[in-house]
């Protein structure tokens, strides 16, 4: 599921990557692929900014600004009983 094009805060420093595969394993939307012993972002727009990849990267090659975007909007909407709103339209 794509959210919005070119708004994701996800960054990968591929020169730091050791190819452990944790990002690929934990990403719920299959944003990452391990290719030739390095992680690659195959579709940045699929990222929901949940932060699982960043939290599980043992060498800190991944950064993402969690608490923003669609993942947070869905969670907050569920908890509040309202429609998800990520304030992207502002």
Structural description of this entry:
The mean pLDDT is 85. The longest helix is centred in the C-terminal third of the chain and has 12 residues, at 69-80. The chain is of the alpha+beta class and 90 residues long. It has helices at 22-26, 52-56, 69-80, and strands at residues 11-12, 32-35, 38-41, 62-63. It has a two-stranded antiparallel sheet with strand order 1-4.
Summarize the structure.
With 90 residues, this protein is of the alpha+beta class.
Give the C-alpha Rg. Answer: 14 Å
Helix content: 10-25%
Helix/sheet category:
alpha+beta
Q: How much is the average pLDDT? A: 85
Instruction: Please count the helical segments.
Output: 3
What is the first-to-last residue Cα distance? 22 Å
Strand order of the largest sheet: 1-4
The gross shape turns out to be elongated
Number of strands: 4
Give the H and E element order: EHEEHEH
Sheet-strand content, in percent, reads 5-15%
Describe the largest sheet.
Answer: 2 strands, antiparallel
């Amino acid at each position: 599921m794509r959210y919005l094009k070119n708004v994701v805060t996800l960054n990968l420093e591929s020169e730091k990557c050791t190819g452990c595969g944790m990002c690929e394993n934990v990403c719920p939307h299959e944003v990452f692929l391990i290719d030739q012993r390095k992680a690659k972002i195959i579709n940045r727009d699929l990222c929901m900014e949940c932060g699982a990849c960043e939290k599980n990267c043992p060498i800190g090659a991944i950064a993402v600004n969690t608490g923003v975007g669609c993942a947070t909007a869905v969670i907050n909407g569920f908890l509040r009983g309202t429609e998800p709103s990520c304030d992207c339209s502002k």
